[in-house]
Amino acid sequence: MTSTSDTSAAADAETETQSVTNSRPAQPRISIEAVVLDTDDPRGLAGFYASLLGWEIESVEDEWVTVVGGSGGQLDFQLALNYKPPTWPDNAIPQQFHLDLQVDDMAEAGAYAESLGARRAATGDHSPDFIVFLDPSGHPFCLCS
Hints:
four-stranded mixed β-sheet, 3 helices
């Protein structure tokens, strides 16, 4: 049962939301250009993800490497001199982000990732639907089915 005060509070919240929404400018087109990963080895990590995803290294600079895929996706790898890999799931050094990568065959994709230098996370969530790995710089990523 809803009280009169609950109904009034809900109406006030809806009016406030409409007021904020009406005062915003129209949303411009905003899209993700790239995901950028910090690493102490931009070339090495770019090579890992290019091989893992079947993408190409597009450009290489001293402190920045760009990898692109046929679907318009882009990953960039930037030099971080004092890079420290995340300690996930322990939060001493948070993971900051992770990639979920869709695969058709979990065992085949896992073996392939490991052949490129990934290692299965010793701790953390694993299920029949995903496995957590660490890339060569220690960033967690999941292979998902």
